Amino acid sequence: MRFEAVKVSSGWSVHDVIFDLPAEAGGRLLTGLSRDEAEKAAAAANREMLRWRPAPKGSDNRVLSG
């Protein structure tokens, strides 16, 4: 996963493992959080990334109805 909760000196942070930086949301760095807040924020960020993952090349990503 791209985002993970990590323990830092100021509490907990959400870390972007691709860019090796603290993650941000709404212009706010996700640092100084409780462990629970960081874990929930990391999970939400990872879910959001999955929503925007492009379909594999050549795949048929049309929605089929019954």
Structure description:
- This protein is 26% helix and 27% strand.
- By secondary structure, it is of the alpha+beta class.
- The chain has one domain (3-51).
- The longest helix has 17 residues, at 35-51.
- The protein is elongated.
Summarize the structure.
The protein is α+β, with helices and mostly antiparallel strands. It has one helix at 35-51; strands at 3-8, 11-16, 21-22, 24-25, 28-29. The longest helix has 17 residues, at 35-51.
What is the share of helical residues?
25-40%
* Class based on secondary structure composition and strand pairing: alpha+beta
Euclidean distance between termini CA atoms: 33 Å
- Can you tell me the overall shape? elongated
The total strand number stands at 5
Low-confidence stretches: none
By DSSP (H or I, 4+ residues per run), the number of helices equals 1
In total, how many domains does the architecture comprise?
1
Give the averaged pLDDT, no decimals. Answer: 87
User: What order do the SSEs take from the amino end to the carboxyl end, as H and E?
Assistant: EEEEEH
Strand fraction band?
A: 25-35%
Radius of gyration, taken over Cα atoms and rounded to an integer in Å: 15 Å
Q: Order of strands across the widest beta sheet?
A: 1-2-3
Q: For the report, how would you describe the main beta sheet?
A: 3 strands, antiparallel
